[in-house]
Structures are given as C-alpha cells and as structure tokens.
Write a structure and sequence with these properties.
Helix 1 runs parallel beside helix 2. Strand 4, helix 4 and strand 5 form a beta-alpha-beta unit. The protein has a 7-stranded mixed beta sheet with strand order 3-2-1-4-5-9-6, sandwiched between helices. Strands 7-8 form a two-stranded antiparallel sheet. Helix content is 42%, strand content 20%. With 278 residues, the chain is an alpha/beta fold. The protein has a single domain, classed as Rossmann fold (3-Layer(aba) Sandwich). The model has no long low-confidence stretch (mean pLDDT 93). The longest helix is centred in the first third of the chain and has 25 residues.
C-alpha cells in the first residue's frame, strides 16, 4: 500500500536480491501465516485482498486456500516487485491471482472483498489504525481482516539459551535499526489496539515464534539475510558498520556459534490478529 509523507522510510532494500530474500523468508514463515489465515476463516470461493503484497507470497498462500473458485488481488506500490509476483503466479498457472500497483486504500478495485490480509505491513505505517480503517472499507460486512506483524521489544532480554550468542547480538542490531528508522517495533502487540481504533471488533490473536538449534535450523540464514538487507540503513543510522558485520560469512558464523555452544534460539514473536467486520 502507499506510504504517506508521515510514514517512516522503508528500511529494507528494494533490489532483486531482496525480492529473493523475501521468497526465502516466506518459506520460513509459511506455517505461521497459514495458521493465521485458516483461523481467520479463509476458505474456498472467497475473494481476498492482499495488502502490501511484495513478491506475492501471502497472495499465493491465500490463493491455495480459496482455490480456483475464489480470487486474490495483491496490491503494492513497488512495480518491480509486482513483476516478480506476476511471474510467480503465471509459472504456477494461478489464473485467479492478479497484482495491482497502487495504494490498497484508494486504487481502483472491484469490490467489496470477503477478506483483507497482510503480513509485515502495518509496522511501516505512522498510523496503523488509520491504515486498517481504509483497508476495512474494502471488506464487506461479515468479511474478515487478518494481519501478522513482528513484535520487537528492545527491552526484553533474548529468549535464547544461553542468552549470549552471535544470534542475540545480531538480532539486537536488527531491532535497533528498525527502532531508529521509526518503525512500529511493537506492532505485533499493538494489533489489538489498532483493530479497535479502526472501528473493528476485538480481534482473536495468535503469537508464534520459530525456535531451533543444531546445524540445520533455517533461522540462521534468515537472520543473516535480514541483516544484509538492513545493512545500508544500519550504516546510515549509525547502528553498525557493514564491514564489521562480515556479511558474507554471517549465517555460517551464527550457525557455528549456536552449534558449538548448544544454543537454542528463538525468533521474535510473529503476532497475528483477525476479526470479522460488523
């Protein structure tokens, strides 16, 4: 969706490398997002709006739930990433998915929708409740809204055990970068208040973290890739010098550190909220 001048600048990169990272991240988060969408009631025949669609991962997941009798419209302001999304849908033969460039609140769309969904989009808004209010206007009465956001609390010690690790140190740099960039770092916990302020009922909520240890956990590569994408912002905001991070070997070093010390690591919370529009 479109960002107003009051919204913080998008801290992640907009490059082909970032679009590929988003695809890998989607695979890592697939289960958490699918559980949210199923709990929200997405099912065959529904017409779904995917807000901030990016390279299309949530839209494609929604398409698998609504089936060919339903349809999905993904909206994003970045035309380059939508080219990637359209190519993926075409390669999968998904004729019931399309992508539109523009602001989900104002772009010309045939409506209303049975559901509006989004993942990691409200954290980039200066006023998430106002964004939700505009999105909800696209949804029919009795339709559903479901959003999943990170909760990044810089004041909470790492839940990893043992706590001190390269995973923890790297994660704190990521959180500090988002904080300095003006993101809604507590958006996950803030979903309840945002839904209510948008005039929606109190949402049902899900809180999940991905956890693992040993050499095969996918989280190491995920965290290293997020750090790489944020590294220009880290430098600009004075969080870290990218040269000091040794980005080319960061994933391997996080993995080796965790494996050598028997560390079990936790991601931050991925919080989902869903409600039925009155």
């Amino acid at each position: 969706m479109e960002y107003s001048s009051a919204d913080p600048a998008y801290a992640l990169a907009r490059t082909q490398e970032e679009y590929e990272r988003l695809g890998r991240q989607a695979a890592f988060l697939h289960g958490t997002t699918e559980r949210l969408l199923r709990a929200a009631g997405l099912g065959p025949g529904m017409r779904v709006l995917d807000v901030g669609s990016g390279s299309g991962d949530v839209a494609l997941l929604a398409a698998s739930l609504v089936g060919p009798a339903g349809s999905v419209v993904g909206v994003d302001v970045d035309p380059a990433v939508l080219t990637v999304a359209r190519g993926r849908a075409r390669a999968l033969g998904l004729d019931h998915v399309r992508f539109v460039e523009g602001d989900a609140a104002s772009v010309d769309l045939d409506g209303p929708f049975d559901a509006a969904v989004g993942r990691l989009v409200l954290m980039y808004r200066a006023d998430p409740a106002e964004a939700l209010r505009h999105i909800a206007a696209r949804v029919r009465p009795g339709g559903v809204l479901a959003f999943q956001e990170l909760d990044l609390d810089p004041s909470i010690p790492s839940r990893s055990l043992p706590e001190q690790s390269l995973w923890t140190d790297t994660g704190r740099l990521v959180i500090e970068t988002f904080r300095r960039a003006g993101m809604q770092v507590r958006m996950g916990r803030g979903l309840f208040a945002a839904f209510r302020a948008a005039g929606l009922p109190a949402p049902a909520m899900l809180d999940e973290a991905l956890t693992g240890g040993g050499p095969d956990f996918g989280g190491y590569a995920w965290l290293a890739a997020v750090t790489r994408s944020l590294s220009p912002a880290m430098a600009k905001l004075g969080v870290a010098d990218p040269d000091d991070l040794e980005l080319d070997t960061l994933a391997d070093r996080i993995r080796a550190d965790a494996t050598d010390h028997g560390t079990v690591v936790w991601t931050p919370s991925f919080v989902g909220a869903h409600a039925v529009k009155p």
